[in-house]
Amino acid sequence: MEAQYESKKPKSLLLRLMVNTLSVFATAWLLPGIHVADFVSALVVAIVLAILNVTLKPFLIIITLPFTIVTLGLFLLVINAAVIMLAQNWIDGFTVTSWLWALLFSFVMSFINSILYKLGNN
Fold first, then answer.
1. Which tens digit of pLDDT belongs to each residue from 64-73?
2. pTM for this structure?
3. CB within 8 Å of 106: residues ≥ 6 apart
């Protein structure tokens, strides 16, 4: 029984990576302040954002917890934009022109992700 569970894990990870890649590509197409050079760049963006969201983002949330509490959680939007801006500094084929576009990128990408995941579950 464990072997079946283990074999589903990589497929799920690969599926999530592909959904995130498509979301990055679609979001860049929708927002004029975001530019993704090609599919490989979108894939790299999805991987880098996943790594940053697992490693750096929790650390930033803990450090800025007082600001997050005072702003009733709205400071988390600033953290999301900062993570996206950091990712665009590391990836050659990914450009975000301003903090506002990074914030919009975060909103639109999560919306597209939720739609794609819902479509995949039906």
1. 999 999 999 9
2. 0.85
3. 77, 80, 81, 84
**Using a CB cutoff of 8 Å and minimum separation of 24, what contacts does 7-16 make?**
15/120
C-alpha torsion sign, points 48, 119, 37, 99: negative
C-beta separation of 83 from 53 below 8 A: yes
Cross-strand partners of 36: 94
Biggest alpha carbon–alpha carbon distance for the chain: 49
Residue 24 CA to residue 44 CA, distance in Å, equals 10
Tokens standing for residue 105: 């990128």
- pLDDT range class, residue 97, cuts 50, 70, 90: very high
Enclosing H/E stretch for 55 = helix 39-63
Tens of pLDDT, residues 2-22: 555 555 555 688 888 999 999
